[in-house]
Amino acid sequence: MLVICNAPDQDTARHIARTLVEERLAACVNILPACRSVYRWQGELEEDSELPLLIKTTEEAYPALQHRLVVLHPYEVPEIIAVDIAHGLPAYLTWVRESVVSSQPEVDS
């Protein structure tokens, strides 16, 4: 899976990325350069700088990863979007599976 999440600043992005990889919930997290996000929040038009995170994980680890992202993230409702990977270099996908803990504890919603 590829999980997309935006962070508000470099320190938060690095903390989230390092924690997810250290805890083996993600094989890799790319921190992309800042972008401008324009969105509506609580009835107001907002515009902020954010850093996109591209998080590589497995379907089995996703529930625990999502829970951890919610805990780590400073936003009330962080962007967390998971996309299934249909195809990829088999050796890379094997590395992702081997890098992520396959057995995750139950997580309450």
Observed structural traits:
109 residues, alpha+beta, 5-stranded antiparallel beta sheet, 3 helices, 30% strand
Protein model, in words:
β3 (about 35-40) and β4 (about 45-55) form a beta hairpin. It contains 3 helices and 5 strands. Helices cover about 30% and strands about 30% of the residues. Strands 1, 2, 3, 4 and 5 form a 5-stranded antiparallel β-sheet that branches. With about 110 residues, the chain is α+β, with helices and mostly antiparallel strands.
Summarize the structure.
This protein has 109 residues and is of the alpha+beta class. It has helices at 10-22, 62-72, 90-99, and strands at residues 2-7, 28-31, 35-41, 44-56, 81-83. It is 31% helix and 30% strand.
**How does the major sheet shape up?**
5 strands, antiparallel
Distance between the termini: 20 Å
| SSE pattern | EHEEEHEH
Residue share in helices?
A: 25-40%
Count the E strands.
5
What class do helices, strands and sheet pairing give? alpha+beta
Helix run count: 3
What gross morphology would you assign?
elongated
Sheet-strand content, in percent, reads 25-35%
* Radius of gyration from CA coordinates: 14 Å
Ranges where pLDDT stays below 50 over 5 or more residues in a row are none
- Chain-averaged pLDDT: 94
